[in-house]
Amino acid sequence: VYAAAPGTSAPETMVPSSVPQPKDDFQEELVIRPLHSGDIYASFQFRTLWDTDFMRDNKVSHYRLFPKSLGQVISKFSVRELHISFTQGYWRTMQWGQPFISSPPGAELWVWFQDSVTDVDATWKELTNVLSGIFCASLNFIDSTNTVQPSASFKPLGIGNETDHRFLRYATLPREIVCTENLTPWKKLLPCGSKAGLAVLLKSEKLFHSSFHSQAVHIRSVCQDRQCKTTSWELRQTLNSVFDLHTSGQGKREWSLFKMFSRTLTEACPLASSSKLYIDITDNSQGEQFELIPATSLLSQAVVLGDRRTFSVYDLTQETTFGSVRSLNLLIRWKSSECDMLRPLLHAERYVAGYGLQTGEIHTLMYNNHPYRSFPVLLLDSVPWYLRLYIHTLSVTSKGKDNKPSYIHYEPSKDRVRPHLLEMLIQLPPNSVTEVTVQFERALLKWTEYPPDPNHGFYVGSSVISSLVPSTVAMDTNSTQERPLFSSFFPCKEESSYFVRIYTEPLLVNLPTPDFSMPYNVICLTCTVVAVGYGSLYNLLTRSFQIEEPNPGLAKRIANVIRKMRGVPPL
Amino acid sequence: MAAPLTLLLIVAVTIRAALFRSSLAELIAERVEVVSPITAWKRGKRGWSGGLEPPRPTPLIIYLFHFLVDYAEITFMVSRNKRSSLLETEEFRKQKFALEADRYPLDCLELIRSPKEMFYTPLKVAMFYLLNPFTILSCVAKSTCGLNNAVLALFVLSTIKGNVLLSAVFLCLATYQSIYPVTLCAAAMLYFMQRQFIPVNLRRASFWWFVVQYLFMFLGSLFVIICLSFFLLGSWDYLPSVYGFILSVPDLTPNIGLFWYFFAEMFEHFRLFFLCVFQINVFFYTIPLSIKLKEHPVFLMFMQLAVISIFKSYPTVGDVALYLAFLPVWSHLHRFLRNIFLVSCVLLACSALFPVLWHLWIYAGSANSNFYYAITLLFNVAQILLVSDYFYAFLRREHHLTYGLYLKRKDGSEATLVLK
């Protein structure tokens, strides 16, 4: 690994060999957005771009900024796109607004494979096990019972012509817990590790003390220029956190980097070509809501999530940002506490209705808060096989009337093999609530199939709602222009709408349980009943009726024995 | 005869119609004692509207349901009534045959049934079937059990009437729906051989010739129906889906049988072994019963139906009602029955306790699965006692018919009979 001198930007490899080393580039940024509920939303993004070809025959051996473990995963398993996320907590859209990149609680993994893969299921199984080792997570629980092949959702986010959904696999583990063991290998994938740059702020004791924590890795191919003659591989590592006002502050509404992360910034990552800190000051145009210390004159505007937002920018590659103390401890002091938030245009909820352990009903509610525009949403539901859906009871209603989806794709489940997959394209009328309900029946499983603490319940993964939401400002469709990382994640194909993907809550469903202390007893008792049947029929089949000689009483029998001994005739 | 029967039919139809219209219909359709994964209407609908997976009820049944979905109620009620009328005519035949055999000792005259008694037997059979709460519940729940019962009754009727081809066809239909009726082959063959005066002797060529004929007809129609299903569905997937489901018991939904809890608590290592044991248990009573009852094929049919209903993998109360409906035919055995009071009390108590303990387990949460399992065990023990009691009474009556009713011991005092 060649280390560049600190302070330079756009480092290039310096090895004088005949084969020119492919160019790689690393950028990091942190966006801090004060939320209307008083919490703080911090979003880290680290992007590595590398124009190399993992798919050619010569194995790539010289890794610099791109982590070797992920490069080997891409070339060995012929991965076209990989998205994996680990989330702790649930994103509260109504209080916090829309996140830049959303993720469901637990672990989520979706992968597009190249067309050259012959056995996608075997490759998927190996890939999940390898990723489980890389991220120290129990992704080995991903198997055919929780993997689905969505037919319409999860289209590739990178470039590519083929969209045969046989090469797509999606799985989610809602029960997965995120902790320090998952953060450490994630930090190791960064070029500077956690030693320099923005990654020094990632301390686990503060990060996991938050209301929401999500870390993700996204790998895809992107175009280098507008004509898209050459492509490069992009690796994005994102980390979103929401810090709670009440647990972190002492009641005073004052935030600082030190309070949130227990560290301050001292330098940018030397390998980064750009290292920036963005504070969202759109609602603070005259400085009436909060005050930033130290102040900065750099401003930037970006169109993100259909809205034009203004940001104060701190460029960490400049020495002047750190001031005389050689450290940046950004302070946000709140002046007024009143604020109102724009209601997010798309919002969803999900819950289980019903009582008892036999049946139930899943209700998914989708809110369209736009006053006059309706837009279509694609709903993806993956329900485990032990909740037997009665798909003929599926009903979609908006404003009390039946709303027929224009596209329904349903794959029924197979016991112990695959889950239910339901995908629907529903048009949401403006300013309305759309309710999707389906009834299900709960199965009784074999006693070995219950997890530890079976009465805790079984998790059902979040529903995924993908949509093109109308935006208030014109979106930029040129994806190769220089833009902040947080606004360039989702490709934008048209100007009037932006892509958003939201996740509902996971469900917790109780199943009837057998008595786990009883296997021997049950076997004995049931076999006894079968033996009673066998015994009665055996007796009746093999014996015949005979006249019975009466049995004399005990006294008489003893007397007869004595009489026989005496030689006297019996009684 | 016709008037009471018509009245009975009207009453039965009224009860069913009333229950269909009430809110209880949905409640009953969800009861696990009445519907099983094989017979449930809701699962059939799911299979049809899903369209992609081979449904658990057999393919022909699904297609039949599709066409009859609007007339389901009438169909079920018609099949109920048809079935009961079949049983009546069958009993007439049987009784006439019994009357013709007058080779019994004189003092057994009171054992032989008089025409006056037998006159009301068909009506009693119809009553036992139509007014049995089990059948009413089965019908209202729109379970396919009713169709199974109807086909079995048609099989019994065609056997009694002597039509070999129809009997083979109906038996094949019954086997197509669930594998277990194949054991009734032996009973049907014995009946025909008795009727055609073919001696049941393994060394005789005529015996084997008849067996080959019957099996050819049975297997031929089975082959035709399976191929028809293949053409309707376009693939062979339904074979492992339906028959594999019945034999390998993957679905452990509670029912009134013995399999569900046993395999829910089974160690993985022994699962296949016990599965084979329990499935063989249904089939292996055929040969011994046929040997013992080779002169009484109708009773053999009853015993086989009872064994199937008790030991099959997904029994429902509709299957129980099927063999309970045969009991009036042997009402003359009641003097030899030993446990009838105990058995009927236990059956009644269990039928009442099933919904109670289910509610306590699933809805109230104050009981657990062991309570429901216990009642299942008790119910099955009671059924076994009932069946073996009738078998004992039948054998005892045969013994008395051969040796006389009032038996005396060597010293002239009254004798007691025991099984030795």
TrEMBL record, chain A:
Biological processes per GO annotation: attachment of GPI anchor to protein
Matching InterPro entries: PIG-T
Annotated stretches, region: Disordered: 1-22
GO (cellular component) term, any one: GPI-anchor transamidase complex
Organism superkingdom: Eukaryota
Protein name: Phosphatidylinositol glycan anchor biosynthesis class T
Organism: Amphilophus citrinellus
UniProtKB/TrEMBL annotation, chain B:
Subcellular location: Endoplasmic reticulum membrane
Coiled coil: none
Pathway the protein contributes to: Glycolipid biosynthesis; glycosylphosphatidylinositol-anchor biosynthesis
TM spans (from-to): 126-144, 164-193, 214-236, 242-263, 270-287, 299-327, 339-364, 370-392
Broad class of where this protein is predominantly found: endoplasmic reticulum
One Gene Ontology cellular component: GPI-anchor transamidase complex
InterPro entries (UniProt xref): PIG-U
Keywords assigned: Endoplasmic reticulum, GPI-anchor biosynthesis, Membrane, Signal, Transmembrane, Transmembrane helix
GO biological process per UniProt: attachment of GPI anchor to protein; GPI anchor biosynthetic process
UniProt signal peptide: 1-25
Domain of life: Eukaryota
UniProt membrane topology term: Multi-pass membrane protein
Family affiliation: Belongs to the PIGU family.
Name listed for the protein in its UniProt record: Phosphatidylinositol glycan anchor biosynthesis, class U
Organism of derivation: Amphilophus citrinellus (Midas cichlid)
